[in-house]
Amino acid sequence: MDCIFCKIIKGDIPSAKVYEDELVYAFRDINPQAPTHILVIPKEHLPSVDAVNAENSGLVAHIFEVIPQIAKAENLTNGYRVVSNCGDDARQSVKHLHFHILGGKILSESM
Ligand code: 5GP
Ligand code: ZN
Q1: Which of 35, 51, 65, 71 could form a disulfide with 76 if both were Cys (CB 3.0 to 4.6 A apart)?
Q2: CATH number of 4-90
Q3: What ligand is nearest to the CA atom of residue 28?
């Protein structure tokens, strides 16, 4: 499958890793929108939030256990934003489920 994030997980495309376990990979966004901008992705290819269901939602729960650990390691003590763009109207550009962690400054009031 021609998926950039699957290639990043495999190591075929280099990335700045910040966290990895058996289910999840996290790395720095190549085009950061904030001083800290990390992408957290499941190793299993799921296209978007829209593909989350009763069978795979444990993976998403695990991602949301990992996110605060990453935020702590990145010193985001004053808060951070977690975003997942889903589908074309949200301008999802990579069709592999991912959660942006944004922080390190006071973020825009608008999304
Ligand atoms: P989306 O727009 O789908 O919510 O977010 C995709 C994100 O992936 C973008 O913020 C974009 O900068 C990032 N991105 C796309 N290609 C690469 C890549 O090859 N490496 C890294 N580190 N980030 C990427
Ligand atoms: Zn993928």
Answers
A1: 71
A2: 3.30.428.10
A3: 1
Exposed, middle or buried: residue 60 (CB in 10 Å: 0-12, 13-18, 19+)?
Answer: middle
pTM of the model: 0.98
> What's the confidence (pLDDT) of residue 76?
98
CB burial readout 72-95, b (16+ within 10 A) else e? eebebeeebeeebbeeeeeebeeb
Q: DSSP class of residue 8?
A: H
Long-range contacts from 87-91, C-beta under 8 angstroms, 24+ separation: 87/48, 87/50
User: Contact 104/76 with Cβ under 8 angstroms?
Assistant: yes
Q: Which residues surround ligand 2, an ion (CB under 5 A)?
A: 3, 5-6, 45, 96
Burial class (CB in 10 A: 0-12, 13-18, 19+), 111: exposed
Tokens of 30: 């190549």
